[in-house]
């Protein structure tokens, strides 16, 4: 057995793919490696169909959180921000999205880099590796109207984002977890204000969402004992949020995996007259309607598994059943979006697993054509 074969076989088995499937998932690796990072216009025209340009291939660090957080004194594997940046840049990634600014205390720079000094250190490591940070899942004020403490921390969040060179600042949570229209109205007022402050700092505010945000808004019908509506007019919570927030101040990061989970799970609602209604969610149509409100995506793949509650199992990018070729070729504003590979379950008992998955996913992002 060759050394190369010995390296890929454990990864193939972890993915649950046969050899034919694994080879198909990684087709294009050599071709992707041969594409120069900067191409003249004629060459780009000749290679029309590259759906994720080299400069737009990214990863959210939550995917490799085990590597970020492990003790560098106890492992030979990349550990902490600096070494993980080096590993990701070596794979070809050009963008990253933070999931907070903490690492193991023994990593260079110490545990908490959510300071002005820590941000300057992170920026230097990003620059050293030719990486660009596009966003962060971090602090969003909970109070409304804003408390003095929340406002001060929000201003520091924006300052750190600018030091890092982020284009966007946001969170991994919904604007509200409520199902009720009144609560989404309040959330919209807060997010419009936060978006204005971010805009003044040269940043775009974004919210990242899982499937619950695409469930139906309770906005009509008989009231319950607390005076809340019990039925729906058929509009989904996040779609309503889009209509009541300023498109120049509030943006979204669609997690494409969770949007497809919503398509699987959230199909029915009770109309104001009490009748059951069916409406199948179309993630692509939501993006197409106002594609520039989605500057960021989580490019998370899934294998169809209708036996599970979510309908999909998370897998490395390019090894699942979500039709990314159609999605990225039809969403509009080609070259505008920033897809971040994410896989919640990438860390495992093998300490190399999450970075191996990142390498495989980069290869598949580079090979994606449409």
From TrEMBL:
PROSITE patterns: TAT (PS51318). Residues 85-340 form the Xylose isomerase-like TIM barrel domain. InterPro entries: IolE/XylAMocC-like (IPR050312), TAT_signal (IPR006311), Xyl_isomerase-like_sf (IPR036237), Xyl_isomerase-like_TIM-brl (IPR013022). It holds the Pfam family AP_endonuc_2. This is Xylose isomerase-like TIM barrel domain-containing protein. It comes from Acrocarpospora macrocephala.
């Amino acid at each position: 057995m060759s050394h190369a074969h010995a390296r890929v076989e454990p990864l193939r088995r972890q993915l649950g793919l046969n050899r034919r499937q694994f080879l198909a998932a990684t087709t294009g690796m050599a071709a992707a490696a041969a594409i120069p990072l900067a191409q003249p216009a004629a060459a780009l025209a000749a290679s029309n169909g590259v759906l994720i340009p080299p400069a737009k291939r990214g990863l959210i660090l939550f995917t490799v959180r085990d590597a970020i957080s492990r003790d560098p004194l106890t492992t030979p594997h990349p550990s902490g921000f600096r070494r993980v940046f080096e590993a990701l840049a070596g794979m070809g990634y050009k963008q990253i999205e933070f999931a907070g600014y903490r690492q193991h205390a023994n990593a260079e720079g110490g545990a908490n880099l959510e300071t002005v000094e820590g941000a300057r250190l992170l920026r230097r490591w990003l620059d050293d590796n030719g990486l660009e940070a596009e966003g962060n899942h971090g602090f969003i004020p909970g109070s409304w109207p804003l408390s003095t403490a929340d406002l001060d921390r929000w201003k520091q969040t924006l300052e750190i984002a600018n030091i890092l060179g982020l284009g966007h600042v946001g969170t991994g949570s919904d604007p509200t977890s409520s199902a009720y229209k009144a609560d989404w109205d309040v959330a919209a007022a807060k997010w419009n204000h936060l978006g204005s402050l971010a805009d003044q700092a040269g940043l775009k505010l974004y919210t990242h969402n899982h499937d619950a945000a695409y469930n139906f808004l309770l906005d009509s019908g008989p009231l319950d004992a607390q005076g809340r509506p019990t039925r729906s007019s058929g509009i989904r919570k996040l779609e309503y949020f889009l209509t009541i927030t300023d498109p120049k101040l509030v943006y979204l990061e669609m997690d494409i995996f969770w949007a497809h989970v919503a398509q699987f799970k959230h199909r029915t609602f009770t109309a104001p007259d009490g009748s059951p209604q069916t409406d199948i969610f179309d993630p692509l149509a939501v993006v197409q309607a106002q594609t520039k409100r989605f500057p960021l995506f989580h490019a998370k793949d899934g294998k169809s598994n209708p036996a599970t509650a979510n309908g999909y199992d998370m897998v490395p990018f390019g090894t699942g059943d979500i039709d990314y070729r159609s999605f990225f070729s039809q969403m509009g504003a080609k070259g505008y979006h920033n897809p971040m590979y994410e896989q919640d379950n990438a860390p495992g008992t093998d300490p190399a697993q999450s970075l191996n998955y990142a390498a495989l996913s980069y290869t598949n992002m580079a090979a994606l054509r449409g």
